[in-house]
Amino acid sequence: MKKGMSQHSSLALPYSELVQEQRSVPPSVEDSLSEISGQQMHVTMVSPEILLIKWNISQPRIGMVASYLPAHQEIYTGVRIYERGSANWNSSNSDGQACHDVILDDRESDHLFFLGLRPGLIYQADFGLFFTDKTNQKNRFCPILRSEPLAIPDDVASAC
């Protein structure tokens, strides 16, 4: 999986690349990038097509979780973005959801923008560690932080 790209047609970018892409971003977005306290994660709609995902987690906590993963693995920090149509969702019931995995290029990163929001869906994000299980060569994800869900209204233009 290419770093910084999701598995589907949507795109995830840090703020600097979002500006380079010349996307229409409201001026208040820079204010939204202020640091969050505690070890937590938030998702916020900043325009009709853009979701801001922010997190705060300490490197010792990431290291502690990584120490429980199988030895000799390549481990990457990343974000898994869930896109689903139902509010009655939990991690054991994944029917009707899309999943976008984003490997972070910068271990110090604390945010990304997810482009390609779809009206009427619910978005939620996990921050965690990606690695490949060497026994069966499957990509695995170990979540550490989870955001609250965010429902995108059917009339998304009026919500911003």
Architecture blueprint of SSEs:
Blueprint: E1 11-13, H1 15-20, H2 29-32, E2 40-47, E3 50-56, H3 59-66, E4 75-84, E5 97-103, E6 111-115, E7 122-133, E8 138-146, E9 150-151
Antiparallel strand pairs: 1-6, 2-3, 3-6, 4-5, 4-7, 7-8, 7-9
What does this molecule look like?
This is DUF4912 domain-containing protein. It comes from Brevibacillus fulvus. The strands form 2 sheets. Strands 4, 5, 7, 8 and 9 form a 5-stranded antiparallel β-sheet that branches. Strands 1-6-3-2 form a 4-stranded antiparallel β-sheet. The chain has one domain: Immunoglobulin-like (Sandwich), CATH 2.60.40.10. It is mainly β and 160 residues long. The N terminus is likely disordered.
What distance lies between the first and last C-alpha atoms, to the nearest angstrom? 32 Å
Strand content: 35-45%
What's the CATH superfamily, by name? Immunoglobulins
Count structural domains.
1
Protein name: DUF4912 domain-containing protein
Organism: Brevibacillus fulvus
Q: Brief overview, please?
A:
This protein has 160 residues and is mainly beta. The chain is built from 3 helices and 9 strands.
